[in-house]
Amino acid sequence: MTWRCSCGFEAGDFDVICAKCGATKPDDRAVRRILAVVPPGPFDPRTEVSADGKHIAGRIVAHLWIIFVLLPFIAMVVYGLIVAAK
User: Fold this and answer.
1) Which of 30, 38, 45, 56 has CA atoms 20 to 30 A from the CA of 23?
2) What DSSP designation does 49 have?
3) How far apart are CA 24 and CA 58, in angstroms?
4) CA distance 58 to 65
5) How far is residue 57 from each of residues 19, 28, 45, 48, 66, measured CA to CA in Å?
6) Which residues neighbour 51 within 8 Å (Cβ) at sequence distance 6 or greater?
7) Residue 60 lies in a domain
8) Helix (H) or strand (E) holding 3
9) Domain residue limits at 20
10) How far apart are alpha carbons 11 and 41 in whole angstroms?
11) Entry pTM
12) Do the domain assignments include residue 42?
């Protein structure tokens, strides 16, 4: 679907700027006008992490470290002691 610029040039569907006069597509201007008035969405794009999030993440990391590092090490030591005792 094509759109007609105010200068009379007929531009393609994916053309945002008129090749003849350089005007922007009318829909594009309307969208920019609406976005300038409408406040941003309901989500606050903050980058800092809350204290609760840091606390929970620290506990998760500690438990994963225990499961994947400490327990296998203890299991190897116990297994070595059992094998050496035989």
Assistant:
1) 38
2) -
3) 51
4) 11
5) 54, 43, 20, 14, 14
6) none
7) yes
8) strand 3-4
9) 3-37
10) 33
11) 0.43
12) no
